[in-house]
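During the no-cost extension, the postdoctoral fellow (Dr. R.K.) reprocessed legacy sequence entries with the updated structure-token encoder. One reprocessed record is reproduced below for audit purposes.
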Amino acid sequence: MANIRSAIKRMKQNEKRRLRNRAVLRRVRSAVKEARAAVSGPSSDPRAAVREAIRTLDKAVTKGVVHRNTAARKKSALARKLAASP
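Re-encoded structure tokens follow.
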């Protein structure tokens, strides 16, 4: 356990950020998973699911949780799947 004031504060900040990042990342993973399911399976509107996943990815990039190239790769893969689906 840190006993320097600045180190204690830093630990508190890191824990807050870790929990916030975990929540954002969980939202991203869920949105991407739902979009993949909507595109591959019988769904009423796969376009809306993909749009929502892209929006969630963009927000995660803005918050610095996901690297922009990772988000671009995931968005591109979703777009390709959507275009390939009948």
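The mean pLDDT is 94. The chain has three helices and no strands. The remaining legacy entries will be reprocessed before the final report is submitted.
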